[in-house]
Amino acid sequence: MLALSRILARRLYHPSALEHQLAHSFAPLTYGPGSTQFKVLEHALNKHVPSYGFNERALVASLNDLDLGPSLLSVIGASNSPSFLNASPAVLELIKFHLVTKRYALTKELDPARTSSPAEPPALETLFHRRLELNKPIAPHLTQLLSSLSIPGEFLVQTALPELHRLSDDMVYFSKEPDANDFAWYSKRIALSCAFVSSELFMAQDRSANYADTFEFAAEKLHNVSKLGQYYNNTEEYMWYTLLMSVNLAKSQLTRS
Amino acid sequence: MLRKSVSRPASRGFSVLKSLKTTESPKSTQNAKPNDRFKPLSDAQVAYLDRVVRVDQAGELGANYIYAGQYFVLASKYPHLKPVLHHMWEQEIHHHNTFNEMQLKRRVRPSLITPLWKLGAFIMGSGTALISPEAAMACTEAVETVIGGHYNDQLRCLNNQYELERNDGTKGHSQELSSLIATIKQFRDDELEHLDTAIEYDSHKAVPYILLTEGIKNVCRVAIWTAERV
Ligand SMILES: [Fe+2]
Ligand SMILES: [Fe+2]
């Protein structure tokens, strides 16, 4: 339970971005769109990952495209520990970059801190659908991506899980989905994260035209998420009702005897 | 006779999904041009605000349920206490709603163990009320003493540690911080008023007074420590 709250704790208080500057515009990335690191990763993700996948070849190809030396490869991954099985720190950074920038892309038109005329909050289903759409270019490499994300270790705890939680939190916050002030806050986000991961796993195997099966699968998973919040609240409500009724019953028995 | 008292807390809805979204609209802080925006808060400052919202939300949730428990037991048997309890309970509900709204707007996670806070607070409120009305008031006195002190600690920290620098070099509190400080100040005053009410209604005549108040004060301190973290 403490481990859970440690992962969730990384999503902290959000000061009003209209009044306070943000330390990093793409937090938790510590570099902005102006930096070389950002440009290389963005180029690699858009141009080379769709054909090569998440590996060093994609990064080297984009370093070549941008006329940068191969030594940058070790700079790019400097924030990740090198002890990771098989994957180089630079590739891990590429994966992190994919997760973070796709999450920000999802809410670009909805966040008043990033647009002067934010659009009406969409349904949760719409955001969920849109996020899966963003996976289409890299869908052939999803299996590899998901297996890199799920290897137990520092990357999973420091990056993969917190980023998944942030995605769910963003989807609830920027949609018109009702949010909760109690335990349902957690159950909703956890259910949403599970629904997203299973939809991605489905997408990785999906051979249907334009991933139609994936979106159908996702819609059904999501339907259960919305119901889950209601289930939890109804259960708690019912238990209170039962508790108060039994106390009343006990009291009336006592006064009668 | 008793059925009447149960209808009250039940009708409040013990766990309610918030249907109104409180995302920020650019209009609410229209005077914040890029140049008089504040420099970023430090990680420590953000972490402290995160704790403040979580622990205060949990505390007001607890207060709400303590009064619910007292009201549940006392309202029908002691009609003269009914309006007094009802007034204090209404204020706690307002406090709780305020922090609920803030928790959603500022995207703070609530305490993980809200069901436990609800149950514990309800038992504390109804349990002391079952001993006697005076014991219930002693409970209120103890709780409000700790909460009042806790709010004062927060006010001290918020006033001292959140002087922020704007991009043009001037300093001050942001609107967000000033309004948080004003809210906590108001709530602290309300809590101290509850404390006076409890004494006025004979909390000191409760038996065993010292045991009761000191015990409850310790429970509250442990609860605050836990709610800040879990
Ligand atoms: Fe209060
Ligand atoms: Fe109070």
Description of the structure:
The complex is a heterodimer of chains A (257) and B (230). Chain A is 64% helix and 0% strand. With 257 residues, chain A is mainly α. Chain A has 2 domains: 1-83, no CATH class; 107-257, no CATH class. The longest helix of chain A has 45 residues, at 212-256. Chain A is elongated. Chain A starts with a helix and ends with a helix. Chain B is mostly helical. Chain B has one domain (40-229). Helix content of chain B is 70%, strand content 2%. Chain B is built from 7 helices and 2 strands. Chain B has a two-stranded antiparallel ribbon. In chain B, helix 4 (114-131) crosses helix 5. The longest helix of chain B is centred in the first third of the chain and has 32 residues, at 43-74. Chain B is elongated and about 60 Å long. The interface between A and B is large, with 51 and 54 residues. The complex binds fe (ii) ion (FE2) (2 copies). One fe (ii) ion binds at residues 63, 92, 144, 191, 194 of chain B. The site of one fe (ii) ion has 6 residues of chain B, from helix 2, helix 3 and helix 6. Chain A: Residues 157-229 form the COQ9 C-terminal domain. Chain A: InterPro entries: COQ9_C, Ubiq_biosynth_COQ9. Chain A: This is Ubiquinone biosynthesis protein. Chain A: Pathway: Cofactor biosynthesis; ubiquinone biosynthesis. Chain A: It comes from Lachancea thermotolerans (strain ATCC 56472 / CBS 6340 / NRRL Y-8284) (Yeast).
Relative strand content of chain B? under 5%
Helix content of chain B: over 70%
Residue fraction in strands of chain A: under 5%
Describe the largest sheet of chain A: none
Shape of chain B: elongated
Short key terms for the protein model shown above:
heterodimer; A: 257 residues; mainly alpha; 2 domains; 10 helices; B: 230 residues; two-stranded antiparallel ribbon; 7 helices; 2 strands; 2% strand; binds fe (ii) ion; transit peptide (chain A); Ubiquinone biosynthesis protein (chain A); lipid-binding (chain A)
